[in-house]
Amino acid sequence: MSQPDPRDPPRGVQIARVAGMPIRIQGSWIFIFALVLWSLSATYLPSRFPEIGRTTAWIAGLFATLGFFASLLVHELSHSLVAQRYGIGVSGITLFLFGGVSRIEQEPSDPRVELRVAAVGPLTSFALAGLFWLAAAAARGGPSPVTVAVLEYLAYINAALGLFNLIPGLPLDGGRILRAAVWWRTGSLPKATQLASHLGKGFALGLMVLGALEIVSGALVGGLWLVFIGLFLRATASAGWEELVLRRALEGVKVEDVMIRAPITVSPDLTLRALIDECLLREGVRGFPVCEGDKVLGAISLDELRTVPREQLETKRVRDAMVPLSQDLRSDARDSLLSALRQMARGHRAQLLVMSGDRLEGIVTRGAVRRMLEVRRLVAVADA
Q: Is 107 a catalytic residue?
């Protein structure tokens, strides 16, 4: 599943980097990993092979679980690598409670590219299913029937993953394939996105209804799981449409159109307690540029203060907690606002410093972008 959304930065702990892309896991991934491991090791394998010992079942279950999540990662890598091939930036891949997601930084500009990026995921899953099935066939008759069972499980789960992702509704790959086809046929990306988003929300609602029926029938855990998946899919289906609306609203808008000019700056020698009392609380903003005279040193915000123990607020100074000035923290007034939002998402920043050479021209914040969009919405309603 690929999900472009500049407002939704990738979260989680980075565990690796592949082709320049960080691979992250969220805390929720640990829960689903443990759940799959327990289901395989304590239920599935012992029911098929009552004679195997507990240790053997858990070792085989661990290999099956690792194979399952490796398959998810390969599925997402296929999306990301094809996107990169067509010049589309990918900020990383995140494994989380409901599977995995490739954080693609922008929508493809051509329906044929969209089709290729979307279709490669299910195709990769089907290819993995075939490989595991062939490996299981080759292992049949050997000394370890448990190995065959693990390989058959991985073949089945990859086939199921490919089929599930072909469901024609956003944010699933099938929804993006449908959107590409409608976009190609009609030439209208908004119409195609709206259709795929509506179908995705309809499918999500169906999952939630099915989950409710499961709960009523006594299958509490399975029913709740379907309800949670439905809620997640419904939210991300809506995000696909909202992201397109956002892109259209920001077309042609430059950073200089919304930046805060001549922003309040703070000294690097200010204590963090004084920063909170005299600046953050008084001015009602999230962060400030850090300057020493005319020299810009970096920026500090609430995000940095959250990592500082309370007992150190009196002694630590701004220079000890600030983010030093770098290319990731700075923008140009003539940059597009959408690219600035994506830059904030990549760096998990709520603001960027707008620089001209070494001179500070202003700052651009997510809050300023939200206010600009609200004003545009009100003007559109008034004009209507």
A: no
